[in-house]
Amino acid sequence: MIKYSTLENVSNEVLFETNLKTMSERLKREVNLDMFCKMLREQDYDPTISVGAFDTDTGECVSLVLNSILKDKEKTAYDIVTCTIPEYRRRGIARTIFEKVKVLLRERGIEIYTTETKRDNVIAQSMYQSLGFEITNEVVTTLKTLTGSRKVEQVEVVMKL
Predict the structure, then answer these.
(1) How is 1-36 classified by DSSP, letter by letter?
(2) CA geometry: angle at 144 spanning 28 and 61, to 5°?
(3) What is the pTM assigned to this prediction?
(4) Phi, psi dihedrals of residue 151, rounded to the nearest 5°
(5) How far apart are CA 28 and CA 84, in angstroms?
(6) C-alpha closest to that of 63 among 141, 138, 5, 146
(7) Cα(47)–Cα(159) distance, rounded to whole angstroms?
(8) How many Cβ atoms are within 10 Å of 55's Cβ, its own excluded?
(9) Run of H or E residues at 40
(10) pLDDT (tens digit per residue) in 57-67
(11) DSSP string computed for 82-124
């Protein structure tokens, strides 16, 4: 059984470990907890509008969406990280999380919800589109790694709430 909750009482270590379980082997070698925490600070992570899914048998966080409210765009929220560990995928968990997130964002007066996903990640793009997001732009972002940084081709997806 899965329990959903906002993330005010969940440590950055738990969030990082959940995210780490979803990464490619290459990416696992390129990140660490300190980098993850710095990214959350830089992105103004807000646990009160972020939701996780927890396996009630194990207590493990199995899926999450970490959000912020953009300072430079009025009434806009940003999805910093979305992930579901592989053995819990295709169960509607992410869909349920997003439905809960949309309620939280609307309660805060947010009108636009945005993020990016890799241009070649058609599975993620399909999920976002099924939730009501629209692909709006192609963008190139910089991924900071332990060994420097690299450019990543992505698409921006946006939803009006």
Answers:
(1) -EEEEESTTS-HHHHHHHHHTTS-HHHHHH--HHHH
(2) 45
(3) 0.93
(4) -80, 140
(5) 15
(6) 5
(7) 20
(8) 17
(9) helix 33-42
(10) 999 999 999 99
(11) EEE-GGGTTSSHHHHHHHHHHHHHHHTT--EEEEEEETT-HHH
Across the chain, what does the average pLDDT equal? Answer: 95
Cβ count within 10 A of residue 15:
24
Local confidence band at 73 (pLDDT 50, 70, 90 cut-offs): confident
Residue pLDDT, tens place only, 4-63: 999 999 999 999 999 999 999 988 998 999 999 999 999 999 999 999 999 999 999 999
Query: What DSSP character marks residue 47?
Result: G
Neighbouring-strand partners of residue 151: 142
pLDDT of residue 145 exceeding 90, the answer is no
Alpha-carbon distances, residue 155 vs 43, 85, 118 (angstroms): 18, 22, 6
Q: CA-CA distance, 151 to 144, in Å (whole number)?
A: 9
